[in-house]
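pinned: reference chain
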Amino acid sequence: MRSLIFLGILSLALARKTFFGDQVLTVHPKNEAQVQAIKNLDTKVDFWSPDSPAGISVGSSADIRIPSEILPAVKVALRRQKIEFEVMIEDVESLVGEQFKSAQGRGILDGTTAYDYEKYHTYDEINDWTNAIAAENPTMVQRTVLGQSTEGRDIPMLTLSSGQSASNPEILVDCGIHAREWVSPAFCQWFVRQLLDEPNNVRISEATYHIIPSINVDGYAYTWTNDRMWRKTRSKNGLCYGVDPNRNWDAGFGGEGSSSSSCAETYHGPYAESEPEVKAVADFMRANKDNVKLYVTYHSYGQMILYPYSYTYDLAANTDELDFYAVQGKNAIQSVHNKRYIYGPGAVTIYPAAGGSDDFAYDTGIKLSYTIELRDKGVYGFTLPESQIQATCEETDAFMQVMHNAVVSPTYQA
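pinned: its structure tokens
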């Protein structure tokens, strides 16, 4: 079976979209005319951060992937508008190619080595891993399938608990909402292993953890076989494929920061929860809202701790509490490898983004709800090397320890 997976990846990798000569430019608009000039590039380029031209503003920077065929013309246009910029990534394919080269060469694909938590894994590998780790730890890990994707893939969830108390608080963690953010599913896998390897299984004796390694399973699979920079789901909508699964939740659906154009990267979909991947997780939240006390969703990149709201500039009722634990989490992260994170309400801290999962969780009744943007801050972006997975996970685990304590032994006082 694993040899077939290897052959499949090898053949499909040869046919995947390549990015030879593409560059990621970081641009710095200083006035509204420059902002508009950058926004006018919309259909020709790939906005990395922010994720759409709507998020660009005066005085902020933006990372944009420019296809090689228009790169000279774009640079001329930027210079003509006197827009300052620098090259963030000289050749996108050189980084993407290294990731695929690593995948083709590692033994896990043919079953000759143990599962490597410091590597990026395909959907099939992750799915097999969820089965294996549940089978290896039958008293502590339960595997369930929340639903199927548009293309019929399982959306597995692992529930970790020592079973000592049915009344323990529950924590929901998900990864991989956006397909190209590979370090996110890598963290969820690493975190499962970390919880199981802890002495006396301390955290899962005090709380029940529900961990979804990858929500957007079709999009993630597509990044391995066709387009490494794919972001959305794979449903067919009009002329284009895909819905932004983090604009598809019933939380200010269709509002600012989302798009009604089916070809846009932030397309919100024809209606809330149109995507089966989103509906499966939303249904779980609704069914378990009285028991789940914390929701954390992992994305990349930018090194941010965000909390509701993103669909409005209004503040959440317990903003002081959300901020209190965000500060603790930020400090915990920095204490590990000195990585600095910013924090705050989504709309205020970065830009409005209606239809997100953290806002939905909060409005459903999960009052500790966070979106974490993992490494980095604009060196590798979505192409974070595998060499940084371990360190990223270590510092993120420090954040999760803070949040665990917030649930089982809260220290916030109003």
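why pinned: The radius of gyration is 21 Å. The longest helix spans residues 389-408.
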